[in-house]
């Protein structure tokens, strides 16, 4: 994983969209599935960039360039996958980052896994305040609402988001994801119904157990 991550990270830091896409596309042509590409290449690459930033080996500007280039890759990859997947059906999933959270690539990959599985999805990106998330959920009535955070002190936002969204009239399933879930325990912020996802493999496995043509259960 480290080798894949370092190679992609260099291309992302250069802002080299074309070569970064070719790097990703080679694995797609070899038959690697989306989970492999997201976890072992893209997440590894952005993780390597995060380590470089934390050790002051790259600047904020470098990190922003890498993020925007990675965002391009995900958009292009999704366009390619849409040529292969079946049309979406009535099951709906909504994706957003809690207030003040700017790191959105992980939840964007989660949304694309849902989309590939036939769910109708809406990706609302970073930093969506609860009042707007709630209004959108009331209007659109998603079956699943996925929240993400990557900064430890942003966990304080989880409880109000979960409490308000789980009690909506259509009773959506609320999922929580983010890189910190594999290191810390956050279940105290949710209810017995809340689902916490440690990684994209957890997301993929849940999707497999809850195909969009079958009524979902609040149980994990």
From TrEMBL:
Domain B12-binding as annotated: residue spans: 90-217
SUPFAM superfamilies: Cobalamin (vitamin B12)-binding domain, Methionine synthase domain
UniProt GO MF annotations: cobalamin binding; metal ion binding
Cross-referenced Pfam families: B12-binding, B12-binding_2
Record InterPro entries: Cbl-bd_cap, Cobalamin-bd, Cobalamin-bd_sf, Meth_synthase_dom
Gene3D superfamilies found in the cross-reference section: Cobalamin-binding domain, Methionine synthase domain
Name of the protein described by the UniProt record: Cobalamin-binding protein
Organism: Mesobacillus campisalis
